[in-house]
Design a protein that fits this description.
- This protein is α/β, with parallel strands linked by helices.
- Strand 8 and strand 9 form a beta hairpin.
- The protein has a four-stranded mixed sheet with strand order 1-5-6-7. It has a three-stranded mixed sheet with strand order 2-3-4, with helices on both faces. It has a three-stranded mixed sheet with strand order 8-9-10, covered by helices on one side.
- Helix 5 packs across helix 6 and helix 7 packs across helix 8.
- The relative contact order is 0.16.
- Helices cover about 45% and strands about 15% of the residues.
- It has a domain of about 80 residues: GMP Synthetase, Chain A, domain 3, CATH 3.30.300.
Length: about 350
């Protein structure tokens, strides 16, 4: 997936769900992999395709708003309070449960439903004993932050027999073997030749090697030749090579805007009064904040609400606290209704 979110994010946002059975299966696979393989990959990363990556942001408001937004604005905390709390709510709950000694295998959250799933490992008797306490701890944490938009679901971890296709397993093992061979060899050689390599990855399907470099690097043909020589020397069949040039200024901008929204993401998602189901961002071609509200475009108050929400966002981005992060970036604010129509 590209480094910068495309306009397709707004089309995909409502499709993101985490079914309970898939969540359990993911946790189970993670546990098994953790027990089976304790080695660290260091900087090695396997990249697999995904539908979308979405980032969320909290929007801070101005006192000059319409009655439709008055209740929302009155509940927005001071900027200082927000900047002191950067941990996402799922992480806070997970850490608290571990600190109290509960056998929690993990937690996750489903959007836009905003259901926090907590999975407990142990016997049925143990689960029945601690379920209520675990749920109360999670609810207390939410209440302490005035987050009333989430619901909690505590389930018992049940190990499932996962059928693995022998052919796929063999291909996966071979995939990892090849990566372990060529990754250190290629990175060492490219570094020796003073190439500025930002990342090196092996994509599984279709099988390709992808190298990210700054868009100022011009020695593309030479780099490809080096990679192919290393593959041949290690008896690895030729693998298609993709060289991806990165605009370093745009990457730096992307990081800043990701942090801007990440710092203040939880309040907007955690409180019902904000009427926001999701918020996305993009920096391509220019920074844009995309707020997705729960009001349909047919609602009489939707347009007014959206216009005031835009002002709330704009006031926040222009605040003194945000100047060093925003810099002089021009940006856009787009508000989408429940039926994904632009209404501001």
């Amino acid at each position: 997936m590209n480094d910068y979110l495309s306009n397709n994010v707004k089309k995909e946002v409502d499709k993101i769900k985490i079914p309970e059975d898939k969540l359990d299966q993911t946790i189970e696979i993670g546990i098994k992999r953790g027990k089976k393989n304790q080695r660290s990959l260091g900087k090695k990363v396997f990249y697999f395709s995904s539908a979308a990556i979405l980032f969320f942001g909290l929007l801070i408001g101005s006192a000059f708003v319409s009655p439709a937004m008055a209740k929302v604005v009155s509940k927005i905390p001071y900027l200082g309070q927000i900047f002191e709390s950067k941990n996402d709510i799922v992480k806070v709950i997970s850490e608290e449960l571990r600190a109290k000694g509960y056998n929690s295998t993990g937690a996750g959250v489903s959007f836009p439903e905003k259901v926090i799933y907590i999975t407990i490992q142990g016997s049925e008797k143990y689960f029945d004993t601690v379920k209520g306490d675990v749920e109360n701890i999670a609810k207390d944490i939410l209440q302490s932050k005035n987050y009333d938009a989430y619901s909690i679901k505590v389930t018992r971890y049940k190990e499932r027999k996962i059928e693995v296709d022998e052919k796929e397993e063999k291909q996966s093992i071979e995939f990892a073997r090849e990566y372990d061979i060529f990754y250190p060899a290629i990175t060492k050689e490219l570094k020796k030749r003073d190439y500025n390599v930002l990342s090196l990855s092996l994509n599984y399907n279709p099988k390709t090697i992808e190298i990210e470099i700054p868009n100022t690097e011009t020695r593309i043909d030479e780099m490809k030749k080096v990679v192919n020589q290393i593959l041949k020397a290690n008896n690895i069949d030729s693998i298609p090579l993709k060289i991806k040039k990165i605009d370093m200024k745009k990457r730096e901008q992307d990081i800043r805007w990701r942090e801007i929204l990440d710092v203040v993401s939880e309040d907007l998602l955690g409180k019902k009064d904000y009427k926001v189901r999701m918020v996305g961002y993009s920096v391509h071609p220019e920074p844009e904040i995309q707020a997705f509200i729960t009001l349909p475009s047919s609602d009489e108050s939707a347009k007014d609400f959206a216009q005031q929400l835009e002002k709330v966002i704009d006031d926040f981005l222009k605040s003194e606290q945000m100047k060093s992060s925003i810099k002089n970036d021009p940006y856009h604010i787009t508000i989408y209704s429940k039926d994904d129509k632009i209404i501001n």
